[in-house]
Structure formats: C-alpha cells, structure tokens
Design a protein that fits this description.
There is one protein chain. The chain is an alpha/beta fold. The chain folds into 2 domains: 353 residues, Glycoside hydrolase, family 3, N-terminal domain (TIM Barrel), CATH 3.20.20.300; 131 residues, 3-Layer(aba) Sandwich (Rossmann fold). 43% of the residues lie in helices and 13% in strands. The protein contains 18 helices and 16 strands. Strands 4-5-6-7-8-9 form a 6-stranded parallel β-sheet. Strands 11-16-15-14-12-13 form a 6-stranded mixed β-sheet, covered by helices on one side. Strands 1-2 form a two-stranded antiparallel sheet. A hairpin with a 2-residue loop joins β1 and β2. The longest helix is centred in the middle third of the chain and has 25 residues. The radius of gyration is 23 Å and the shape is globular. The N and C termini lie far apart (72 Å). About 2% of the residues have low confidence.
Length: 501
C-alpha cells in the first residue's frame, strides 16, 4: 500500500483511487481546468456538465474530447430532460417538449422517438450518461419541483413512457438515469431547499410511486438516481439517498436493479444541511449509492478533495466498510466500460444520425400536445402579456419561455410585455391599445396573485385568450384556452402557430 499525504493526513493511495472513482464533480468553465485533467488521469470516475460549461455543439464536443483524452473511461453526465430543463439548449430553449407534453399525447412510440433524438444530440457531443428521465408520478398539483417534468399523474402512463424514454435514449448508446427514486411526485417541498416527507403507506408506494421505476428496470435502464426525501413507510430516520432500506433492500433486492445508483446533487439543502457535504456523501455510499453527483452549486477541486478524503477516512475509521467502497467502484468501472463499448459501437452510425437531425420530431410532439378549448384563434392584432413566476433550481433562469417571440415572427403587429408579481390588472389593460389580450402563464393554481389577476383581466376583457404553459389544474377561463403542457421554446412555437391560424 502506498500512503499519500492529503491536507496533512496520511491516506492510503489505493483507497483514494477507489473513492475518486465514485465522484461525479462539476467544474467552472468551458474547457477542463487543470485540476480536472490531473484528477482524471489519477482515476476520477466522472464529471457532470451544467449550462455554465456549454456554449454550443462544437465547443461541447471539444470539451468532452479533452476529458476523455485524460481518462477514456470517464463518465460524462449531463441533466438534459428537454422541455423546461435543458442544458444543451439553455440560451435558445429546448427544441423538444418535456415529459408532461409527451404524457399528454400518450404515444409511447413518439416518446421513444423524442428520447432517441435527444440521445443522438448527446452522443454526437460525447456525453455518456443523461440524468433523465424523471420517473416521478406528479400526483400533487402543488408540487414545486416536479410538475411538467413528470409524464403525468397516472402511474401506469408514467411507467409506459418512462420505459419508452429509456429505450429511445439508450438506443443511441447514451445511458439513461431514471429519477428520483423512490418517487418525488407527491411532495410539497423542493428538495433543493428543504427535506420533503412523503407520508404514504407502503401499499400506496407500491401502487403509485414504484411502477415507473420497475418499468425502467424492465426496459434495461443503466442508472437510477436517488431522491433526497424521507419516506417514513420505508425508513423513518434516513432520507432515501442515505437509506439502506431504500437502496439496498428495496431497489437492489426487491426490484432487482443491478445497474449504477447515482445520488441526486449531494449539496442540496435537504441533505447537506442535515449531514454536511462530506457526511451526506459517506452515508450515501454506505447505504448503497455507487456514484456521488456534486456541483450544481458547490464545485471546484476543494469540494472534490474533501469528499474523496471523507470517504477514505470513513473506511479507515470503520464507519464505511471497505467492501462497500470496492463494490461501488466496481459498479462505476463496469458502467464506464459499457459506455466506452457503446461509444465505439455507435461511431459508425454518427453520420447517419447527423443526416436525420433536421427532422422536427420535437415540434411534431409539441403540436400534438396542445389542448385547446373555446376560440383560441386570433382574428386581429394581439398583445401578449407574459407573467413570470419563480421556477425551481433545475430550470436555468436564462432559458427563454413564452409565445411572444414566435408569435411576433408570425404576426409582426404583435406587441409583448412581460410582468412579474405586483402587477395590477390596470397595468396590463393599459398596454392593450385595443388588441386582443393573450395572457401567458405557468401554474397559476400555485400562485394566488396570478389567479386573481387573470380573472380580473378576463372580467374586463372577456375576449382574452389564455395560454397555460405549466400544469393546467384550474377550469379554463377566457374566450379561448391553450394548454401547452410545458414552457419549452418548441411548445411556445406550437401555441403561436395555433393562435396565428
């Protein structure tokens, strides 16, 4: 054994390499920093890319090539759900609708085609794992973090589309990672900020939350991401990410999953405030997690070193069995080897994929997902009023949404104003100048101020058309109503097309 000095402590080199293999840290910049290059050459198992690392397809391909040059088996992950949550198309908005729109259409073949389209884009860019799809059943309309990221509220609909999404993505050689196990749909707390508690009986979990994950496993999903939430019916003390009952007993033994278990971002407040970053990582590995995702908010070499050293120290102290660390590192190695083989196999198909990339499967899906009531065709000029609300941290703040831009392209006489909380009905009505009001919103049922505002405007202008780009949970109002079931750019284009006739 070769001892290594790290922050003044003598640590075993073999254990350090094993611990490094488990980490999927993030970094800043559009080229690999020196510390990432060095750590990859020393055995770092993976990295996760965020919007801050991505400019365009050419730059991303250069970035992934530089990473694999240091470690050909590196796991390169990204969180590309499409729809509202996109990293590759963050500045222009997603060219494909998200899960809720696909579930609304309820055509598994279409879902599979959309996921394959995503997979081709990721594969061409050198990505090996996608933290998607969300397999959560969104049976709580007030859910602040899932919403349109879910295929819907029916567990069997979610199950069949989760399986289709997995098949489509993995057909391109990119590994899918179904999330957030054992299910984040019935929560009223965003786990980025606090610890959600799912207060349901085990029989309800088996009937609602678990079928989509079972379907993903049956479809051959290569990875599953844990949820930072407490499920007292399974474990009254530890969040799922840190629960042996959830990860080892339920996911491994009962559901029979043999692939890679990845944690949700370990710095999220739901677990980091309770255990600290290092404590959360150690507990997750001890419970059965194989890879640690970190870096949405905490990134840099100091964080990666801290987590690696904490895992090694936990083995040395006996808190973490060495065999569990060895097992987790072996899972990562097997996953990486499979990904490398898939990358080699798909290289001959790359040119054919690029030739098909112009097919607008995303626009086709967005058009099919529209649900219209009343008269939502414009008979004259429109003023688009877009109402911004807070979004969860999974959604990039700068990603565009709405219908004002595409409708202006189709009808140049269109005018557009974006409003935030505090606006009054008179403020909106004063901008109309005789034009038809088109009121664009997300999840008004979650924002009382927005509900009241919409009703006041419609009362004054009954010819108003509502375009709802979130989860439609209220009775439609206005002369016409369009539900897009997501706020992706392509959803806005589909709605604008319909309005313009």
């Amino acid at each position: 054994m070769t001892p290594t000095m790290s922050t003044g402590v003598l640590r075993d080199h073999r254990l350090l390499r094993l611990a490094d293999a488990l980490l999927q840290p993030a970094f800043e910049g559009t080229t690999p920093p020196d510390w990432i290059r060095r750590r990859l050459s020393e055995g770092l198992g993976g990295v996760v890319l965020f919007a801050r690392n991505i400019v365009d397809a050419e730059q991303l391909t250069r970035l992934t090539a530089a990473l694999t040059a240091e470690n050909p088996n590196v796991v390169i992950a990204v969180d590309e759900e499409s729809g509202d949550v996109t990293r590759l198309d963050v500045d222009g908005g997603s060219r494909r609708p998200g899960n809720f729109a696909l579930g609304t259409v309820d055509d598994p073949a279409l879902t599979e085609a959309v996921a394959a389209d995503i997979g081709r884009q990721l594969a061409d860019a050198g990505i090996t794992m996608n933290y998607a799809p969300a397999a959560d059943v969104n049976n709580n309309p007030a859910n602040p973090v899932i919403g349109v990221r879910s295929f819907g509220a029916d567990p069997w609909l979610v199950a069949r589309h989760t399986a289709a999404w997995v098949r489509g993505l993995q057909s391109t050689g990119v590994a899918a990672c179904a999330k957030h196990f054992p299910g984040h749909g019935d929560t009223g707390v965003d786990s980025h900020h606090g610890l959600p508690v799912v207060e349901v009986e085990l029989s309800r979990l088996e009937r609602v939350e678990l079928p989509p994950f079972a379907a993903a496993i049956d479809a051959g999903v290569r990875a599953i991401m844990t949820a930072h939430l407490l499920v007292p019916a399974l474990d009254n003390d530890s969040p799922a990410t840190m629960s042996t009952v959830v990860l080892a007993n339920l996911l491994r033994e009962r559901l029979g999953f043999t692939g890679l278990i990845v944690t949700d971002a370990i710095e999220m407040a739901s677990v980091a405030k309770r255990y600290g970053l290092a404590g959360a990582a150690v507990r997750a590995v001890a419970a059965g997690a194989d890879a640690i995702c970190v870096g949405g908010e905490n990134y840099g070499e100091n964080v990666a070193v801290m987590l690696r050293d904490a895992i090694v120290d936990a083995v040395t102290s006996g808190e973490l069995p060495e065999e569990r660390l060895v097992e987790a590192a072996a899972k990562v190695a097997a996953f990486a080897a499979d990904s490398f083989a898939a990358k080699v196999a798909r290289s001959t198909a790359a040119m054919a994929w690029r030739g098909r990339s112009g097919e607008p499967v995303g626009l086709t899906a967005a058009r099919r997902a529209l649900r219209v009531s009343g008269n939502a065709r414009l008979s004259g000029p429109a003023h688009v009023a877009e109402f911004s609300v807070s979004t969860n941290m999974a959604i990039e703040p700068r990603t565009p949404w709405g219908i004002g831009a595409p409708l202006t392209q189709l009808r140049p006489e269109t005018t557009v104003t974006r409003f935030t909380e505090g606006v009054t009905a008179d403020d909106v009505l004063g901008r109309l100048n005789g034009k038809t009001p088109v009121l664009v919103c997300r999840d008004p049922h979650r924002y009382p101020w927005l509900q009241v505002l919409l009703h006041k405007i419609v009362e004054a202008r009954p010819d108003s058309i509502i375009v709802e780009m979130g989860v439609p949970a209220s009775e439609p109002i206005g002369a016409g109503h369009i539900a897009t079931h997501g706020a992706a750019t392509v959803c806005g284009l589909a709605a604008a097309e319909y309005l313009a006739g």
